[in-house]
User: What shape does this take?
Amino acid sequence: MKKKSKHEWRANTLPALLMVGPVTAVLALLVAVPLIYVAIMSFCQIDEYYNVVFRFTLENYKRLVSVNYLRTYGQSLIIALLTTVVCILVGYPFSYLIARTKSKKKRLLYMLVIIPFWTNSLIRIYGWRTFLGNSGWLNSALQFLHITGEPVEFLFNRGTTVLGMVYCLIPFMVLPLYTAIEKLDGNLLEASSDLGAKSAQTFFKIILPLTSSGIFSGSIMVFIPCLGFFFVSDILGGGNSDVIGNLIERQFQSGNNWPLGAALSIILILVTLILVKLYQKAGGDMDSLAL
Amino acid sequence: MRRRSKKRIKKGVSVLFCTCVYLFLFLPISVIVANSFNATTSKPYLSWKGFTFNWYIKLFENASLLEAFGNTMFLAIVSTVLATAVGTLGAIGMYRYKFRGKAIIDGLLYIPVVIPEIVLGIALLTIFSKMSVPRGMTTLILAHVTFCIPFVIFNVRARLSGYDNSIEEASLDLGATRVRTFFEITLPVLTPGIAGGALLAFTLSIDDVIISYFVNGQTKTYPLKVMESIKSGVAPDVNALSALILVGTIIFVVLTQTDILKRRK
Assistant: This one.
């Protein structure tokens, strides 16, 4: 009896512990504990030196509903929504064309989507600023060609922030769509048109339903990060189009009210949870979010 | 005849559309590369003052920039190795064994993937500060390993789902030890998944701005160095470094890709 349990220990328990132990430790200590700590901190106070004091308060949550903050949440959601819509409208036909091309250069076309993302995202966003700024390249060109006399203010509005977000996040829409569209069975499309369906009908009844998984996972991976990408709205929005991430960043840097920042983070956690639940309800596969 | 010209128009529109998307994707990069040859020496380094290679020489005199780049590479290599090792073991263990709490581990894995990076960043910052862990390279590595692990696990797991357990049993039946079976049977089968996960981890680590921003302390990585210089204008030697990194990665990928193609043949 004792011998058997010893065997069981060596055959199953020990290898299982060795293999799953490290990842469990990382997830527990560096994901679960820190997030729980943030949740606790959101109910804490600060003293006059901005130190966190573990005394219960709802003050941070009361401050979350101030008018200024509400305006930023709304703006942040609008920016994220616009970004997602633009990513779908541009990303879908684009992925469709490169996934179903018969050209030999298909692999190259795919790689060309990824290559820009090997340059650091901050630098690329700064590249947009160099291009669009008042003394930037586009304005210089416009003035040189005498199309405009004065520099046109392209930057520092909601539109340029959305442009930057789309730029940073569009691969997260294109890649899952590409995978979903490539899997489409060409015979199905042929059968549909042979049976007399118009191309619009084939699209809405066959193609769209079969590739909707890609749209769903792409939308999750575009919408959620948008709420936190503070550096995009910093560099291209110039403080005129803050997202929730900017509010949080300020509390952890210069503002230094960590409990308030923690409460603001709770909003982002809740939004994420709700969207992921919706995604799962719609039949979304969680693993495909990370591939 | 009419149908044919309609088809041609359709094709033309498609090509035009895709070209526009590629232009959009490459525009800022072209600006960066072009500006690395800009002879201007006055901030914010925007107006074009002629062509020069000077910034590529200046780059190698900029000790703090080179140090930041070195930090980024060190951080990316160490975190990729650690995340790949821990992630691969974890993925196999979770696939093979049933145990209590598995669903919880699974749920926790999705958090770093879906949650906005800033939330993980401030969560790690607060816990490091609470535990009085001095912020620097160590905390950067811990943070990067944390957000890279799930990507390794999901890639390995995708490979595992088509995995045939019986080859491992055969190896054990033929007298190989568990350890030998793991290194000679299990790992080689999973290699594509592991490599894909590692490459993704490396890319994510090199590019990370937001999480590093909160846990770096005094240690500057290359993206953080860029962030710091944005207020006063990014000097063209930073652009020169970016251009070199881009060329380096393209060469690396071309080499490895052709290698894969050869092996397939």
